[in-house]
Design goal:
This protein is α/β, with parallel strands linked by helices. It has 2 domains: 169 residues, 3-Layer(aba) Sandwich (Rossmann fold); 153 residues, Aspartate/ornithine carbamoyltransferase (Rossmann fold, 3-Layer(aba) Sandwich), CATH 3.40.50. It has a 5-stranded parallel beta sheet with strand order 7-6-5-8-9. A 4-stranded parallel beta sheet has the order 2-1-3-4, with helices on both faces. The two termini are 26 Å apart. The structure holds N-carbamoyl-L-aspartate (NCD). N-carbamoyl-L-aspartate binds next to α3 and α7.
């Protein structure tokens, strides 16, 4: 049975769903990022909308909380001129016992063209993509601790913008990598982009077991791990996904791993500081760093719109071309 990495590509290698960054080629990622760069420049124009998805319906299905991801998917779909429906799952019939499959079939009956799915269960977007009628695209907006591919793409876009091609950069990811779908997807993305030096910095309890297989070097001491890096990616402690006892205390974490101005000086002098949000000031990041000149955290948010526009445009266009071939 094909997994997410196979299911998301059609026979010609074109993107028909986006479920994971695992298995994406450098060429495909580059083409998405180039398209996103184009959309980002167009956002400076007085009229921000383009008619690419006019007449298409995008349904946002958020089974888990979200601020940035949900809003930027919404804005991205509107900027492509699609009709957008956002289903608030807390007030939907899922709370009356309707299964995910039945909710899906009903939304299909309303002639949706693309589902954006966030779910606390890893694999939920894949489950949906495997069962939807063939012309509908599915985009993963974060599933459990598994994947968050649009976040990884906007991170790569931001890295490219500030530091150039990741193929000669050192990138350090600091914090709770074990529960982070953002870290997992970014690592696959960086590998696809041939990044030669990916580092993970965290206590052993917050590191996943497979980092060595992914070519990631691990560091328990932040002072060692940060030395000479170009890019620092900070992560929130995902307490909602943690079993008790993995973490000493937030104060202790900040003392050992928090990003302070002093620690930032260990990286290259022009290093950038990234964070997918939401940030927890005084836990993984000090105020002076969060608000300082090296932080590009809000630029990541702006890039999120352009990247999500590129992903929706590309997946829907593949689905449309495939539907024509089936006629
Ligand atoms: C992240 C997520 O939901 O995975 N946030 C985001 O999408 N921007 C990271 C987090 O919740 O810590």
């Amino acid at each position: 049975m094909p997994g997410p990495a196979e299911l998301q590509l059609n026979r010609d290698g074109n993107l028909r769903h986006l479920l994971t960054t695992e298995g994406l080629s450098r060429e495909l990622i580059t083409s998405l990022l180039d398209t996103a760069d184009g959309f980002r420049s167009a956002q400076g124009q007085p009229v921000k909308k383009v008619p690419l998805l006019r007449g298409k319906t995008v349904v946002n299905l958020f089974f888990e909380n979200s601020t940035r991801t949900r809003t930027t998917f919404d804005i991205a779909a509107h900027r492509l001129s699609a009709d957008v429906v956002t289903l608030d799952i807390r007030t939907s019939s899922a709370s009356k016992g309707e299964t995910l499959f039945d909710t899906l079939k009903n939304l299909e009956a309303m002639q949706a063209d693309l589902f954006v799915v966030r779910h606390s269960a890893g694999g939920a977007p894949f489950f949906i993509a495997d069962r939807v009628t063939p012309h509908i695209a599915v985009v993963n907006a974060g599933d459990g601790t598994h994947a968050h591919p649009t976040q990884a793409l906007l991170d790569l876009m931001t890295i490219r913008q500030h530091k150039g091609d990741p193929n000669n950069l050192s990138v350090a990811i600091v914090g709770d990598l074990r529960h982070s779908r953002v870290a997992r997807s970014l690592i696959h993305g960086l590998r696809a982009m041939q990044c030669p030096d990916i580092r993970a910095i965290a206590p052993g309890t917050l590191l996943p077991n497979d980092l060595a297989d992914l070519g990631v070097r691990t560091f328990h001491r932040i002072e060692e791990g940060l030395s000479g890096v170009d890019v620092i990616v900070l992560l929130r402690l995902q307490k909602e996904r943690m079993i008790a006892g993995l973490l000493p205390s937030e104060r202790e974490f900040f003392k050992l791993y928090g990003m302070t101005e002093d620690r930032l000086r260990l990286a290259k002098s022009d290093a950038i500081v990234m964070h997918p949000g939401p940030i927890n000031r005084g836990v993984e990041i000090a105020n002076e760093v969060a608000d300082g000149p090296q932080a590009v955290i809000l630029n990541q948010v702006t890039n999120g719109i352009a990247v999500r526009m590129a992903v929706m445009a590309m997946t829907i266009s593949t689905q449309q071309a495939d539907a024509l071939c089936r006629l």
